[in-house]
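Let's study a protein:

===
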Amino acid sequence: MDNSPLLTIITITFQAERFLDRTLKSVELALANVTDPAQVEYLIIDGGSTDGTLGIARQYSHFISRVVSEKDKGLYDAMNKGMRLASGQYLWFLNAGDEAFDQHTLQNLLNSFETGADVYYSDALMIRENGEEVGLRSRFTPHALPTKLRWQDFALGMKVCHQAFIAKKAIAPLYDDQNLSADIEWEITCLKRAGQVQFLSFVICRYLLGGLSVKNHRRSLIDRFRVLHKHFGLVPTLFNHLRIFWRGYWFAKRNGKYW
């Protein structure tokens, strides 16, 4: 009998004392409504924090399966470490400041796994650092969410929020830890390898705005170009980047800045 968990949640932290508590509280609340909590493994991969991050993690040791705290080469190096340690069939990255959407999220997610899809995805509710809700990503960014997702849908960028994208570990590649748009590459590769992709009708996460790619915007754009060039070719990627900038300009002009 296989006693391994169905889902591994991986939280990456570094000097995250401002935001980690909200993440762990949301998971604790959701776990309280799970019929079999043993189906969920929770890993914290920390980059050697010297603030109160680890102290906060200790307050939730009753459901955290493992905490690893050591220096790493950055976000994607830490995510690779989490993937290697994960024993769950599915992987969900929920980083410090992100939250499970509500108390029913985990049980709804575990129920969905009964279909055996390789990838599950959903919308994400965007929030600011002060907890203010911005709105659903599909409505407050140019990235409308399709109900039948294909890897080709990423021609114009990150179609699905990474925290709302759950994949089987068996099909998930390691991240390129030198690329700030490695999350796009990861999702595209998962979709290329997936036999079945399923849209979830419920929102699964609250996504904290202001991640690594926003803080290093120029390099992130260059790295995104490299990823899309690899998967779509040079000429289509050049043309699609004109579409990306034009679409973003008009969206922001009509709706205001959304990041």
Remarks:
- The chain has one domain: 7-255.
- The radius of gyration is 18 Å.
- The chain has a mean pLDDT of 90.
